[in-house]
Design goal:
four-stranded antiparallel β-sheet; 52% strand; single chain; 345 residues
Amino acid sequence: MQHPHPHPQHPKAFRPVLGIVVALLLTSCSAAGPVRQDPVAAPSVSARAGAGSRVYVTNQLDNTISVIDTGTHKVTATVPAGTGPEGIALTPDGKHAYIANSASAKVSVLDTRTHKIVATVAVGKSPSGVALTPDGRTLYVTNGGANSVSVLDTRTNRVTATVPVGVSPVSVAVAPDGGTAYVANSGSAGVSVIDTRTRRVVRTIPAGSFPVAVAVSADGRSVYVANEVAARVSVLSTRTGKVTATVPVGEGVFDVTLSPDGKRVYAAVLGPGDVSVIDTGSHRVVKTVHVGPPGTDPFNIEATSGAVYVTDQGAGTLSVIDPATLKVTSTITLGNSPYGVAAAP
């Protein structure tokens, strides 16, 4: 699911559905130079402890990572990454970041102290979403072009298993107890449930039209799924495997994440340039935060106790939302086509 993107501007043609159909036709073609993954990956699952000192953002078309100081809201470093960097996840100790490079079918390992890539691991075709287990020892990587998930041992930086899942998996989230991984399969309208001990799919849950992102509640009882085409967030019961609620949001919802206290779900909504704030008790939108006009393209989202960070792919910026006031307090200029975001503990 890739688009050639020869120009630095973000064209509105990379909207949901149509862009994805074109992307599917292009996955079999090799790309010369930077490649733009269509906006479907939400793999911003990372350490969600309190407000971190740094935020890391992948710039897909620059092949770089921006490092932002959370105190000053300034970019303090720009680090070379692999080709087409997308999802990013930080280890619980914040010492390493794992980046899925969609155009090269590899995962880069960044030492966050030295800002250097210390390892590169081959995975499946068109990797996009990444998620670590709570102990940081295992990384799960969605391979959208291979209909699989790579399982990587972070102690050896080697792939130890490849798990077949649904069609075009784009996002993965690991349950808080580390026993289960949930994979959003955009092309087959379901969520694959992987037992992390056996490394096998034990269940596939129907999850609405074009599921592109998943997030797991702190108690592990609910999975929140962004349905891009249906413009809603589905709530799945991990016990029954059924949809228990659907929450209408805006056109082109691309990512979901939970607040650290579990009381809110934040959903990045591309079409209108909004972030929908969902109350997890009532399953209703309680606030809509306007990030920018159509074309801003709020894309991936990360929440800490002190801030909510949203990559604005079309605008080339990072929006910072105060969770207390639910207002945008800062807009930070980044590289070309910012994609994944992760906050360091």
